[in-house]
UniProtKB/TrEMBL annotation:
<dbReference type="GO" id="GO:0050660">
    <property type="term" value="F:flavin adenine dinucleotide binding"/>
</dbReference>
<dbReference type="Pfam" id="PF00941">
    <property type="entry name" value="FAD_binding_5"/>
</dbReference>
<dbReference type="GO" id="GO:0016491">
    <property type="term" value="F:oxidoreductase activity"/>
</dbReference>
<feature type="domain" description="CO dehydrogenase flavoprotein C-terminal">
    <location>
        <begin position="122"/>
        <end position="164"/>
    </location>
</feature>
<dbReference type="InterPro" id="IPR036683">
    <property type="entry name" value="CO_DH_flav_C_dom_sf"/>
</dbReference>
<dbReference type="Pfam" id="PF03450">
    <property type="entry name" value="CO_deh_flav_C"/>
</dbReference>
<feature type="domain" description="Molybdopterin dehydrogenase FAD-binding">
    <location>
        <begin position="43"/>
        <end position="112"/>
    </location>
</feature>
<dbReference type="InterPro" id="IPR016169">
    <property type="entry name" value="FAD-bd_PCMH_sub2"/>
</dbReference>
<dbReference type="InterPro" id="IPR002346">
    <property type="entry name" value="Mopterin_DH_FAD-bd"/>
</dbReference>
<dbReference type="InterPro" id="IPR016208">
    <property type="entry name" value="Ald_Oxase/xanthine_DH-like"/>
</dbReference>
<dbReference type="GO" id="GO:0005506">
    <property type="term" value="F:iron ion binding"/>
</dbReference>
<dbReference type="InterPro" id="IPR036318">
    <property type="entry name" value="FAD-bd_PCMH-like_sf"/>
</dbReference>
<dbReference type="InterPro" id="IPR005107">
    <property type="entry name" value="CO_DH_flav_C"/>
</dbReference>
<protein>
    <submittedName>
        <fullName>Uncharacterized protein</fullName>
    </submittedName>
</protein>
Length: 214
């Protein structure tokens, strides 16, 4: 896959400053059954990262980790010219975005990690099968640590729902309407020690609260 190769080359060149590329690449291994040794050579159609993003699917394999990494989209239209959208503000509801009707996305910019900081980014997918299955819940996490204290954090989830009325029904699945950050949980971590058990338990209590997703 072109995207997988690009992520690998970028990570080899820039290392831990672009750990988001390695997080994306590891998730791509589950596409087309390769993780299970079932390479599907007969799948000929491919999609682009931009197409994956602008569909605004809450169970996209890219959107949650791109939100967590602080990615900014560049778009262009005849009426508005060139303009920017932070990914965390891009998903209004499935399948809606703030893009004008005559616009296209032209670039995705992922910030480089600042020198001397520890930046951890992970991407997770929960599904009924390990590979070749539609996502139930998607998650992208980023934490910036200094002396084990949380200096910055983003916890982005796709597919979460706190009431049946929010579910969007499709031919294949039920899904929550958009990808969101768990802002109250993020606040519970800021300035705290990352490996403190009490801090983790408190943050998990906030995460499981219905108000976090309202």
């Amino acid at each position: 896959m072109v995207l997988e190769k690009t992520c690998l080359e970028g990570y080899k060149k820039l290392g831990k400053r672009v750990v988001v590329l390695e997080a994306i690449r590891k998730q791509l291994r589950y596409f087309t059954g390769r993780q299970l040794g079932l390479m599907r050579w007969w799948i000929r159609n491919t999609t682009t990262p931009a197409g994956n993003i602008v569909t605004a699917s809450p169970i996209s394999d890219l959107n949650s980790v791109l939100i967590a990494s602080g990615t900014v989209l560049t778009a262009q239209s005849k009426t508005c010219g060139e303009f920017l959208f932070p990914m965390k503000e891009f998903f209004v509801a499935y399948p809606m975005t703030p893009l004008p009707a005559d616009s296209i996305t032209t670039k995705s910019t992922i910030p480089l990690r600042a020198e001397g900081t520890r930046n951890v980014i992970k991407s997770y997918k929960q599904a009924k099968r390990k590979a070749n299955d539609i996502t139930i819940v998607r998650a992208g996490f980023r934490v910036v640590l200094n002396d084990n204290s949380v200096m910055d954090i983003s916890l982005a989830y796709g597919g979460v729902v706190h009431s049946p009325s929010q579910l969007v029904f499709t031919n294949e699945s039920r899904m929550a309407p958009k990808t969101v950050e768990a802002k109250n949980t993020m606040e519970a971590f800021l300035g705290k020690k990352w490996f403190d058990k009490t801090v983790l338990e408190g943050a998990m209590a906030v995460l499981s609260c219905l108000k976090e997703w309202c």
